[in-house]
Fold this protein.
Amino acid sequence: MNAVPQPQAQTESRVLVCDGNEAAAWAVALARVDMVAVYPITPQSSLVEYLAKFVADGRLNAEIVDVEGEHSVLSVLQGAALAGARTYTGTCGPGLAFMFEPYLRTPGLRLPIVMSIVTRDTLTPQSVWGGHQDAMSVRETGWIQLYCESVQEVLDTTIMAYRIAEHRNVMLPVNVCHDGNYLSFGAARVELPAPAEVDRFLPPPAVHWHAALDPERPMAVDPLTGGAGGPGPAMFVRYRKGHCAAMQNALSVIESVHADWHRIIGRRHPALVEPYRMEGADFALVTIGSMSGAAKDAVDAARERGLAVGLVRVKTYRPFPVQALVRALDGVRAIGVVDRSVSFGWNCGPLYQDVLTALQSAAARPATLSFIGGLAGADLTIGHFERAIALTRAQAREGRSGGVIWLNEEDR
């Protein structure tokens, strides 16, 4: 019987062409995770298929658990993380909804699990296409959320997420969000770092000081608070206060981790927000995710026509980078915020709602406008952003705020 050929070890960085789902899978392999639990769902399915192939080919030395549904996916990983394992999963849309109970529990347990959300619009009407509604709907559950613009950023950010999650001052789960369809299936040139470089950046997990099951050190996990004979609400308050503090600690940790990535790997990505052509800008767009590429092209074209417009892309969405955003937008007279989801309670985009809140601490408050587009996989083109620029410029002239513009409403 012929021996099965083993994959050759990668000793240097190399270039490949892949989509965002494959890039995330490569990142998981380079992070040397111990356990992956998966359940496929569009547009995440190929991501877990790549991971299964990597395990079968020997590129990833990890336990892969194919469970009966997303609720079990995160429940399995909670047990593995409590035993000190480095863990990973990915999901989206209805899958994220199905795992909501353990999803809500994970940050309270302070488990450093990394999970990709391959963003998808929610039901109903029926949709399997990209949008940010799924990830935005869980933005207040205590997970860190990082949004990627490019395939390269998906790969790099997924590796960095482990350094952030496992940091002693954080110890929280991280969602790395990349847009369904546009990044999940969009192929691009990607630089794959050498494993030795990643090992230098990301050492093995050392979380046993926190919450790792050990027969020599018995402990209770998730005790019931309050009630007769219980520890009372003071313990619950202590947990909540510590969780909030860890979220704020994450802001500086995210910045330092990105700086280390640039120093060791040689690639630079924005940590909290990315100002683009903001020098002398009189008004600006605020974007998130893969839409930012087309928005930057529209800003470039507007600058060539003499318009003083810039752009700020939000990379870290939770915790929200209030001070970084306020600094980036300092001096502009109007802001147009573009969302790929809606906040039903406020009749606007959720990013717009957060920007409005952040601007309460600004020295001067610019006029604002909410744009909603890209729902259910709709394209946000340069033309859409040119319209957003024109309307935001008019807001700057008039000095008034308010209003929601639905960018794809007339598209066919």
In short: The CA atoms of residues 164 and 254 lie 6 Å apart. The longest helix spans residues 233-265. The longest strand covers residues 14-19.
